[in-house]
Write a structure and sequence with these properties.
Elements lengths: L1 H8 L4 H10 L9 H4 L2 H4 L5 H23 L7 H14 L4 H4 L9 H11 L8 H7 L22 H10 L5 H10 L8 H12 L6 H7 L1
Helix pairs in contact: 6-8, 8-9
């Protein structure tokens, strides 16, 4: 406050101080005391009740701004976004029209809801519609067959590991390659095999006409 008084003493008018206060991004409800005491500027300042309202509005806007900045991070997930939106809706229920799970900004509600559950580790709670929306992203994990009882305690640890590998089910990709190309896959380069399998698994966007146009 002493510094402000020194500025006034050096000839800075209250009106200029108010302009600098606003230009520096300071809220009007936090105007310096010497501006509030100026009769020419007092009529432009909010009343005590209006000042409290503006302070509350400023706090609310800071919460919304923090969410807006967080959404710009590359590391934010769909589950994070839904958590932020739900927190805002809890504070302001009218936001549900714009930020709710079925708001206009949500292109596919079932897909988003499914992603949120998967990222939260709640895959068991997926509905049938959510599973259908996520079906193209499903990953088949290797299923290991249990070892026979007489093999569990015989042989060294390395041998048990080898037996366990031999009894494991091949990956879904290998089975798909065998069923799609048969023995021909053994004569193909890995990159060629990958390209053919990719086209086979994603045959919906293209057909023979598209192939002819590309040739």
């Amino acid at each position: 406050m002493a510094a402000v008084q020194d500025e006034i003493a050096t000839g800075i008018e209250p009106s200029d101080a108010l302009e600098l206060h606003i230009l520096h991004g300071q809220p009007l409800c936090e105007a310096p005391w010497f501006i509030q005491d100026d009769d020419d500027l007092a009529e432009y300042l909010p009343s005590p009740a209006g000042n409290r309202t503006l302070r509350k509005l400023l706090e609310d806007l800071k919460k919304i701004e923090s969410v807006s900045k967080e959404l710009q991070l590359k590391s934010v997930s769909i589950a994070d976004v839904r958590s932020y939106f739900d927190a805002l809706i809890e504070l302001w229920p009218e936001f549900a029209t714009y930020l709710g799970p079925r708001a206009a900004i949500v292109h596919n509600p079932h897909f988003e809801a499914g992603c949120v559950k998967v990222q939260r580790g709640e895959s068991a709670e997926l509905t049938r519609s959510e599973k259908a929306a996520l079906s193209q992203f499903a990953v088949l994990e290797d299923v290991e067959q249990p070892l026979a009882a007489d093999h569990e305690t015989t042989g060294s640890f390395v041998e048990q590991v080898k037996k366990k590998r031999k009894t494991s089910t091949p990956t879904a990709t290998y089975l798909m390659a065998k069923a799609t190309l048969g023995l021909q896959r053994q004569r193909l380069q890995p990159a060629t095999l990958e390209m053919i399998l990719f086209l086979r698994m994603n045959d919906a966007p293209w057909d023979a006409n598209v192939v002819n146009e590309c040739c």
